[in-house]
Each structure stands twice: as C-alpha cells, then as structure tokens.
Design goal:
single chain, mainly alpha, 0% strand
C-alpha cells in the first residue's frame, strides 16, 4: 500500500500541488490508524524521554554527511556530481520553501512516520529481526521507483530504456540499504528523531549542495 501510494498517487497533479499538506495529512491518518491498532508511542519511537538520545544519535550520523556534501560542492572536480535540474530551476525563495517546508514536512517526517515508525512497529508484531527490517527496507526501496525515474528524465540521464531500468533498480536497492541504516538508528536510539535528523541531512543537504554548486 505504501509503495503504491508514492508511485501512483504521487504522480497526480493534485498531489504535486499540495505535496506537504497531503503528506502531512497522510502521516496523521497513519498515526491514528497505528494508535487504533494498539501500537504505543514506544512502539513508534515517539517516547518523549528518548527524544534527546534520538537527536544526539541522528546528529552524529548527519555530521559526516553534511561535511561530504559541502566538500563535494566546494571542490571543482566533484561539483558536477551535484548537478540537479530540479534544483537549478529554483530561485532563492523557492529553494527556501523546498528545504524548510517541502522536504521536512512532505518527505522526511511523512516517510519516517510511515516506515521507521508505523510499518516497522507493525512488522515486528509478526516478524522477528532481521526479517522485519529487511521487509520494511525493501518496501522503502520500492517507494522510490517513480521519483527515481522522474529524476533521471529531468536530468537527461540513462537515455536508453535498458539503462533507465538498471539505474532505477540500482537506486531502489541503494535506498533499501539506506532504509536499513535508518532502521538501525531508530532501534539503537529508541527514537524516531534519529532517522529524521539523518534523513533531513541527506535530502536537504543534497538540495543545498546542488544550489551551492550552481555556476
């Protein structure tokens, strides 16, 4: 259901126009359904007494990521790696909206509630570790099929059909691996804040680094 939501509903014009609002509503509905099914704040990584540990763990993981983005953007030989036409077309106001609203609310909070929060807790009711993490991470990889295909098209990468399929599969597999890492952070810290911080660093850091690398 989650993979279908992002790959089908996410392609609709109304979803694109109202992306943060629609996904914030989806996150609220998902949390309400989780509570109705008996999942507790502890199950979902939302215990207040674990927030500080989550922020600390997430910050430790995010620091090298942000440093890597900054180094890539400031080094001439690696700067072209950050070229992203989705960011190149944004003015300063649009970029600010992108990194302060669209990514945090529409992408990161929604995805972390859905995957490392509700789905992870639900899977652990019926599966032992590491099976729950493997299944949840695989779904997270499938979730990114459509966005990856769109990014390839916008940036005119992988021109042939075979190359596009290979690239999408590779990115989905890499995203599944990233999902597993985010799940580990969630478990070790006991808080959803840890994967949220790292996820923010990756997505917002990539956007800001791409803007910084523009000629």
């Amino acid at each position: 259901m989650l993979a279908g939501y992002n790959n089908l509903a996410g392609a609709r014009p109304w979803h694109r126009r109202c992306y943060p609002a629609v996904n914030a509503l989806a996150a609220s509905v998902t949390l309400a359904a989780a509570a109705a099914s008996g999942l507790t704040p502890a199950d979902l990584g939302l215990r207040r007494d674990r927030l500080r540990a989550g922020l600390s763990c997430g910050s430790a993981a995010a620091t090298p990521v942000l440093a890597a983005f900054a180094l890539t953007a400031l080094t001439p030989v690696t700067r072209p790696m950050l070229n992203d036409q989705r960011i190149a077309g944004l003015d300063r106001r649009q970029l600010a909206y992108h990194v302060l609203v669209r990514i945090p609310v529409g992408t990161v909070v929604w995805e972390e509630i859905a995957f490392r929060g509700v789905l992870q807790a639900a899977l652990r009711r019926v599966l032992a570790e590491p099976a729950a993490t493997v299944v949840g991470s695989a779904v997270f990889g499938l979730w990114h099929i459509r966005p990856t295909a769109e990014a390839l098209a916008v940036n005119e990468l992988a021109a042939s059909r075979g190359r596009r399929i290979t690239a999408v599969v590779a990115v989905a597999a890499g995203t599944a691996g990233a999902g597993a890492l985010l799940s580990v952070l969630r478990e070790r810290s006991g808080s959803l804040a840890a994967p949220v911080v790292l996820h923010l660093a990756v997505n917002c850091g990539a956007a800001l680094a791409s803007a910084l690398a523009r000629p």
